[in-house]
Write a structure and sequence with these properties.
The protein is α/β, with parallel strands linked by helices and 376 residues long. Helices cover 36% and strands 13% of the residues. It has 12 helices and 11 strands. The strands form 3 sheets. The protein has a 7-stranded mixed β-sheet, sandwiched between helices. A two-stranded antiparallel sheet has the order 8-9. A two-stranded antiparallel sheet has the order 10-11. Bound molecules: pyridoxal-5'-phosphate (PLP). The site of pyridoxal-5'-phosphate has 15 residues, from helix 4 and helix 5. Pyridoxal-5'-phosphate is lined by residues 62-64, 92-93, 95-96, 138, 164, 166-167, 194, 196, 206, 208.
Length: 376
C-alpha cells in the first residue's frame, strides 16, 4: 500500500522521527550484554505502572500472552475454574477470545452498542449467571469502554474486571468524568497492553505488558511468565516463557516519551475528519472530543463498502477493515457460529478504517474532501 498517496500505515514513517535515538539505544543494549530481564525491562515496568495508575506491571512477550497470563494466573490462584464464564464483546479482535478459550474458560459474547461499537454495557446483565466470573472489556479502536454499568456489575456480582487495553494505551478520563480520574489500563483488576508495532505505542517487534492492582496476581503472572519459577530453579507453577526482550523495552522507553503527543495528534486528525466528512453514504464514528479516545483507528461505516474501498484506493487513499469476520464466525470457533449477534455481523460488513497513523492535518482535510465526493 506504500504506493498510495495517503498510505493507511507506514511503520517506517512512524519511527523515522526517532531513528537516531532508536539506533542509539539499540546499540547500548547490544553492547550491554544484557538481553533479557535487565534494567530497561525493570524501568519500563515502573513507567507503565505509573502511567496506568496501578502499582504492578510485568512486561511480556506480546499482548495475547499478557491476556493469557492474567487468566492463567487467576486459574492457578483458584480464583477462576475451568468452565467459568467470561463476558466478552462480540465485536473485537480474535486475540481477546483466544485468551479466554486457551484457559478452558467459556467466552460469553455480548453485542456492541452500534454507536460506540464497543461492548453494550446495558446488555451485560442478562448474560450473567452462576458461572460468570469476569468481564473482559475491550477498548476497541482506542475508545475506552468503561462506565457506571460495568463498575456496578463487577461490584454487585463480584466479577473480575479485566481490560484488553491493546488499542487504547494513553487514554484517560476527562476532569468532569463521573468516575473520578483514571487511565486505561488502571480501571479494573488487571489489564493487558500490546505493543505490537501498529499499536499507538508500538515496539519494533512483539511486546506487551500486564498491569494490575492485585499484588498476588502480579507475583503469579511474573512467575508463570518465567517458567513458573518464583526464585531461580524453583518452579511453583507449570509455567511459560513470556518475557519481553531488553531491546524492545529500550525502544518502548524511548517511544513512551511521545505517547501523549501521539494521542493528541490522533485526536486532532479525528476532529478534522469528524467535522469535515459530510456524505450521506458515510457514517462517521462517535467523537467525544475528549481524552477517553486515543483513536487507534478512525472507523467509518457504509452500506456500500466494496464501492467505497475501491473509490478510496482509486483516489490514492489506503484503508483497512477491522474486522471483516468477527471471532464467533471464524472457522476455529465453529461451536459459536450459530449465535445470534446481528449488530456485530452488521458492523463487520460495514466498517472501514481510514488512515490516521501517518496523516498530517493537511492530508486529513484532503482525505475528507475526497470522501465527500464519493457517489455510486
Ligand atoms: C493487538 C491486539 C491484541 C493482541 O496483541 P499482540 O501484541 O498482537 O499479541 C489483543 N487484543 C486486541 C484488541 C488487539 O488489538
Amino acid at each position: 500500500m506504500d504506493e498510495m498517496r495517503y498510505p493507511f500505515l507506514s511503520l517506517r514513517e512512524s519511527n523515522d522521527r526517532l531513528m537516531g535515538d532508536l539506533e542509539k539505544v539499540a546499540s547500548e543494549v547490544i553492547r550491554s550484554g544484557s538481553y533479557l530481564r535487565g534494567e530497561r525491562t525493570k524501568k519500563l515496568e515502573t513507567k507503565l505502572a505509573e502511567y496506568c495508575g496501578a502499582p504492578y506491571c510485568i512486561a511480556t512477550s506480546n499482548g495475547l500472552d499478557a491476556l493469557r497470563l492474567i487468566f492463567r494466573a487467576y486459574m492457578s490462584m483458584g480464583v477462576l475454574l475451568p468452565g467459568d464464564e467470561v463476558i466478552v464483546p462480540a465485536n473485537t479482535y480474535i486475540a481477546t477470545v483466544l485468551a479466554v478459550t486457551d484457559n478452558s474458560l467459556i467466552p460469553v459474547f455480548v453485542e456492541p452498542n452500534p454507536v460506540t461499537m464497543n461492548l453494550d454495557t446495558e446488555r451485560i446483565e442478562e448474560h450473567i449467571n452462576m458461572r460468570t466470573r469476569a468481564i473482559l472489556t475491550v477498548h476497541l479502536y482506542g475508545n475506552t469502554c468503561y462506565d457506571e454499568n460495568i463498575k456496578r456489575l463487577a461490584k454487585d456480582y463480584d466479577l473480575k474486571l479485566i481490560e484488553d487495553n491493546a488499542q487504547a494505551f494513553g487514554a484517560h478520563s476527562v476532569v468532569e468524568s463521573n468516575y473520578g480520574t483514571w487511565n486505561s489500563g488502571g480501571l479494573g483488576d488487571a489489564a493487558a497492553l500490546s505493543f505490537y508495532p501498529t499499536k499507538n505505542l508500538g515496539a519494533l517487534g512483539d511486546a506487551g505488558a500486564v498491569v494490575t492492582h492485585d499484588k498476588e496476581l502480579a507475583a503469579c503472572v511474573r512467575a508463570i511468565a518465567n517458567y513458573g519459577s518464583d526464585t531461580r530453579y524453583h518452579n511453583i507453577y507449570k509455567g511459560l516463557n513470556c518475557r519481553i526482550d531488553e531491546l524492545q523495552a529500550a525502544f518502548l522507553l524511548e517511544k513512551l516519551k511521545y505517547i501523549d503527543e501521539e494521542s493528541a495528534r490522533r485526536r486532532k486528525i479525528a476532529d478534522i475528519y469528524s467535522a469535515e466528512i459530510d456524505n450521506p453514504m458515510i457514517m462517521t464514528p462517535l467523537n467525544l472530543h475528549n481524552d477517553t479516545q486515543v483513536w487507534h483507528q478512525y472507523v467509518v461505516r457504509t452500506e456500500y463498502r466494496d464501492a467505497f474501498v475501491k473509490y478510496l484506493n482509486d483516489n490514492g487513499i489506503g484503508c483497512d477493515i477491522h474486522y471483516a469476520v468477527p471471532p464467533h464466525k471464524q472457522p476455529c470457533y465453529i461451536e459459536y457460529a450459530d449465535l445470534d449477534l446481528p449488530i456485530t455481523e452488521l458492523l463487520s460488513k460495514q466498517v472501514v478504517s481510514i488512515p490516521i497513523a501517518n496523516v498530517s492535518e493537511e492530508d486529513a482535510h484532503d482525505i475528507a474532501k475526497i470522501i465527500n465526493e464519493f457517489t455510486l
